[in-house]
Amino acid sequence: MARRAPGADGPLMVAMLQTSPPRYPAGLLGLACAVGLLLGHSGQSQAAAFGDLLIVHVSVVSPERSAVLRNVDVTVHDGRIAAVAAGLQSGAAPASSGIRTLDGSGLYLIPGLIDSHVHLGWIPGMTEEQEHAHPDIAQAARAQIPRSYLYFGFTTLIDLISTPTAMARWQAHDPVPDTYFCGAAALMDGYPSNYLAKPERYAQFPYMIVEPDSAAALPPGIEAAAHSPQAVVARMKADGAICVKTFFERGFGAVHDLPVPQASTVRALVQAAHAAGLPVLMHANSDEAQRFALDTGVDIIAHGLWNTTERSATPGELTPATKAILDRVIAGKVGWQPTMQVLYGLQNLFNAGFLSDPMLARVLPQSLMDWYAAPEGQWFHDEILADLAKDAPGTPRADLRVDLSGPIGTVKAATEYLAGHGARLLFGTDTPSAPTYANPPGLNQWLEMHNLLDAGMTPTQIFEAATLANARALKLDAEVGTVQVGKRANLLLVRADPRRTIDAYTSIVEVILGGRVLDPRQLAAAGAGAGAGAGAAARAAP
């Protein structure tokens, strides 16, 4: 039975601003342990301990270049790219000097990948209570998650709802991708804080917005002046956030009357953020929400267009009203994240073959996969199944499925339209989006690449969306996104040209994080071996 697509970031993601493991663990990880210290900077200081690096006879593929730069050498010093030129090997210091040399003959050197929409604070599919009940499983999972992102080449992550406090937990792992965060400017009592009880929600959303018409009835301890658009942006900036995330969500499922911000509020938020040098992203997955995002001048729409009030008579065909929204996205050069894998991750809870996909063993500890397959690990599946049964009385439970073919068809058609008209498409997955085990870190990004390819994006467009386009959109392009002198040495050594095939990301020879060389075989979950590539079960329709 068809159901309206959920608001991504998942209804159960709202405990994300807790400093202890959240009740429905959600992503709070942003900046390094010290307030305002960007992880990229701390990563550089660590990189120097690994020595300098020389990559010889390699072909460089970088999104700012139209052609491959063949048979060149690349040097890395103190975690940054020091030179890209032919013949550097002849002047290199001997091996005894501590310079490590990699032979790039027949290989391609590309920028490390960027996912501009993740949530890092919880173990997919586990509640806080379950994590406490199974500490060994949880510890193994938390240790593996950063490595799984790196295994698939993602050296930079942006957690879209976070604070500095929670970064200490994420940063305790080694290795860990470079990670930045957005502050969540959620409307008081609106999405996503509505899923927490009062007054807990007010403590857990430090950057929430209070509109003037709510100021007369504020809870004790909440001062309107501290929650104006200008005040929350100033606090985010001081805390080290690199972006602002806000929300337009009336609800989904049984909830459809959540308060949404006034246009004047978001315009003031955008003005304050831009004055502070911060881009603004908006959670918006409906036609109403995306029009609102465009009307208020946000920089990035942090979801694809899933839900529309008008439906075409032909499935997957865009209506004139939908095309009008997309044309505004194109004309305004607004960033747009399709985040299609969110929908597939819900459907795959009902895919009997998903947990037997051999690729899961590369990104998840065996103990966690065994727990997912046990009755306790099926709790979210069972909750959804119970809701489906209420909506379809008399239907055998074995026949009940989440059917999101309508929203999937709409977002695929919208993505194809935007890809064909030069839109500013950005690679973001919203991993894991909800407490579903079917959006596993690392593998989820690879599955999203297939979704984008199926929706009409070319390998070149996917490559650019996951590197330079993301870096520019988040104002990180001085640090990452290309293979250029002075940039942080977040690099991948691969066997194929990513502009020709996304299989390049399944043939990673080395992951280089701030000059530190990481063997993918050592990043995979224990006993998983080497190599990558999504199995058929993970991509199959349920």
Q: What integer value in Å does the Rg equal?
A: 22 Å
Helical content, roughly? 25-40%
SS content category: alpha/beta
Estimate what percentage of residues fall within beta strands: 5-15%
How many helices does DSSP assign? 19
Terminal Cα span: 13 Å
In quaternary terms, these chains amount to single chain
Mean pLDDT: 87
C-alpha geometry? globular
Q: What is the total tally of β strands?
A: 15
Which sheet architecture does the biggest sheet show?
Answer: 8 strands, mixed
- Poorly predicted ranges: 1-48, 533-542
What are the key terms here?
542 residues; alpha/beta; 8-stranded mixed beta sheet; 19 helices; disordered N terminus
Structural write-up:
By secondary structure, the chain is an alpha/beta fold. The protein has 19 helices and 15 strands. Strand 1 and strand 2 form a beta hairpin. It is globular.
